Amino acid sequence: MTFKLDASDRLMNSMLLQPPKTADAREVGVRCRGVAKEFGDGETRIRVLHEIDVDVLTSELTLLVGPSGCGKTTLLRAVAGLEPLSGGSVQLGGQSISSVGHTLEPEERRMGMVFQDYALFPHLDVGRNVAFGIMHLPTPERRERVREVLALVGLEDARRRMPHELSGGQQQRVALARALAPKPQLLLLDEPFSNLDVDLRERLAQEVRTILKAAGATALMVTHDQLEAFAVGDVIGVIHEGRLHQWADAYTLYHRPATRFVADFIGHGVFAKAPSSSMKKAANCANACTPRLASFAIFTPKNSAAMPMGMSKCCCAPTTSFTTTMPTCKPASCAKPFAATSSSTPSNSKPANKSWPMSPATTTTKSANGSESAPRWTMW
Asked: Which of 8, 194, 218, 312 has the greatest number of C-beta atoms within 10 Å?
């Protein structure tokens, strides 16, 4: 059976399989330091952002990803100037635009924004929707700019059409063209593909990345879709419960997650408990015995009080079979475990090229009356 990968799949796979490139000397477009946001007063006060530090480089596509209600859209609105800060500061191009008690108006920030529902003006055609933010330009220059951005998004022939005459994907591209027309320093996108079906969302994610790269835009985008984040973003920030867990490229997030939440949210990881100290000791014994004995048993007492006098922490002894019968492990043989036994490996023992140690099996001992006592040794 042959599976065909689409463009977004190929891009995501390449980002996951290739190690990150060395960072260049690009300037920081947006810098957030200690950004905090609270809603409510007194006992009803709720903190939704906890001292978040973020640097978005110029001409970089940055994604904020996390489950619903984690605070990613609140951070985006704080950067846009739509929410005042409760703590910290935001800088754009080295200029402070938000801090506690000071918020530069959104229209003065030279930012463009694409909303979830696109927010197109239903009474204006495509051309006038795109030109809405550049009405201050002379008419010839304004028309040329509208033509440029419509060509960039592949809608140069739809200039006279009304929004209701467009498909969902076309409306999304019109909203993107309108945001790019004023040449903003920063482009903000709030889950721009959430209203689209799965197939169209995957295709447009790749198209938007191509458009933004062609425009040289600096973008900060919010999504809850991991695959969408991997397909579009150069750098991805993972947010959970108002805290930034990791800020890295797709390769690093997938292969070297910083927290358990990142590993569980980004990849489909399998979590295993760390081995106990007794298991570690048994593994160390196996490493010591393997080079010397082709067939061996390792006995580690589970109770130090049960250890025979003079016996070391582990005892290696040749054995013919791995059964519940525990061979005699005398202190003398443990003191010199290899000199006398390594040359007399039984003929029916396991071949030396097999992988050792074997899986653990607990042994039991029998008393004189034939009753079995509680397990006291672990055999590897």
From this structure: 218
pLDDT tens profile 57-90: 999 999 999 998 999 999 999 999 999 999 999 9
DSSP per residue, 71-111: SHHHHHHHHHTSS--SEEEEEETTEEEEETTEE--GGGS-E
Cis status, amide bond into 357, omega within 30 of 0: yes
Q: Give the whole-angstrom CA distance, residue 364 versus residue 362.
A: 7
CB 182 within 8 Å of CB 217: no
Q: Report the top-level CATH class of 7-110+184-266.
A: alpha beta
What residues does each domain of the chain span? 7-110+184-266, 274-380
Token digits of residue 143: 């028309």
Q: Coil, strand, or helix at residue 243? A: strand
Q: pTM of the prediction? A: 0.65
Q: List, in order, residues 6 or more apart from 321 with CB less than 8 Å away.
A: 348
The helix or strand, by DSSP H or E, that contains position 48, with its residue range, turns out to be strand 46-57
Over residues 263-304, the pLDDT tens digits come to 888 876 677 776 666 555 555 555 554 444 444 444 444 443
Cβ–Cβ < 8 Å for 301, 376: yes
